[in-house]
Design brief:
Elements (H helix, E strand, L loop, with lengths): L3 E5 L3 H14 L10 H8 L4 E7 L2 E12 L12 E10 L8 H15 L4 E6 L4 H10 L3 E6 L18 E7 L3 H7 L8 H6 L3 E2 L4 E2 L5 E2 L11 E6 L3 H7 L1 H20 L2 E11 L2 E10 L1
Parallel strand pairs: 4-5, 8-11
Antiparallel strand pairs: 1-2, 2-3, 3-4, 5-7, 6-7, 9-10, 11-13, 12-13
Helix pairs in contact: 7-8
Length: 287
């Protein structure tokens, strides 16, 4: 493995490679694949197809394009422009090398040069790695919960579940984002928030079988900060107990929809050992 370069995908052969990387990552669901003809259309019409290259080999990719915010449709589109980040993935053997982070920074540079200040994308609220990456590391915020957004999907990460998603909003020139990317914000722990009055709405329980289960008691949101707990390894739950995975989906849906309706937004995600086990918490702040 040599030095990995991040650059736009331009040639037809490289586009085919991006298609094949997707087939590795979303095996079994052809509907998830963005095909070469669409990749070319995106890249040659103001969109972005980035590749992570190990020599001439594409080992990761990112796809994005210009879009418009769903706000007041009476406003001209030019006042609602944003960059939509559709998909990003890295081959398993190249993961945990920081390639996703580097591609997001390259996407940010691309959008800034186009004069766009907002990048949005969706992610599964039950996957803690994505939650940490999107909100803690990049500084994205979340104000919207989207029920069954993509309908039925058949890949291993989605089969059998409603495809509920959170909508990440990455305000790429904001002071908040600039501080996160520069590493100028000191990480806070759960105790920082609880000592300031934050309440864990749904403290998960770990039974004797090792499974992490949703709380039987849900507290109502109040105060400036809230904490919502999710399992740190939802894929393991999905692989072993579909009933429990579905219970988590419905549990989290209720919590987020209620919190957003009450005027809270996601501003961070914390992973740490609490009471002898690793746990993950969304931080929500009153607007």
């Amino acid at each position: 493995m040599g030095e990995i370069a991040i650059r736009p995908v331009t040639s037809l052969d490289e586009m085919y490679q991006v298609e094949e990387v997707q087939r590795v990552l979303w095996a079994g669901d052809e509907a998830m694949i963005v095909h070469t003809h669409m990749l070319l259309t995106i890249a040659r019409n103001g969109g972005l197809v980035l590749g992570a290259f190990d020599g001439d080999k594409v080992v990761g990719f990112l796809i994005g394009f210009l879009g418009a915010d769903e706000g007041d449709e009476r406003r001209p589109v030019m006042t609602r422009l944003k960059h939509v980040s559709k998909r990003m993935g890295v081959l398993p053997e190249y993961q945990d090398l920081g390639l996703g982070y580097r591609m997001k920074l390259a996407q940010r540079d691309f959008a800034i040069k186009q004069g766009v200040r907002l990048i949005t994308w969706t992610f599964d609220p039950l996957r803690s790695r994505n939650a940490y990456f999107n909100t803690h590391k990049l500084g994205a915020v979340v104000e919207r919960y989207l029920r069954d957004y993509y309908g039925r999907l058949e890949d291993a990460q989605n089969v059998g579940l409603p495809t509920d998603r959170l909508l990440a909003e990455w305000w790429i020139t904001s002071r908040r984002v600039e501080r996160r990317l520069a590493g100028k914000r000191e990480p806070l722990s759960i105790s920082h928030y609880t000592q300031a009055g934050a309440v864990i709405l749904n403290p998960a329980r770990s039974d004797g079988d090792g499974a992490v289960r949703p709380s039987d008691v849900i507290r109502f949101p109040e105060g400036r900060w809230l904490l919502i707990e999710i399992p740190t390894d939802f894929d393991a739950i999905l692989a072993s107990d579909m009933g429990l995975a579905l219970a988590w989906r419905m549990h989290i849906r209720e919590l987020f929809e209620d919190a957003f309706a009450r005027g809270y937004m996601v501003t961070d995600f914390i992973r740490q050992v609490v009471e002898g086990r690793e746990r993950g918490f969304y931080v929500l702040t009153a607007k």
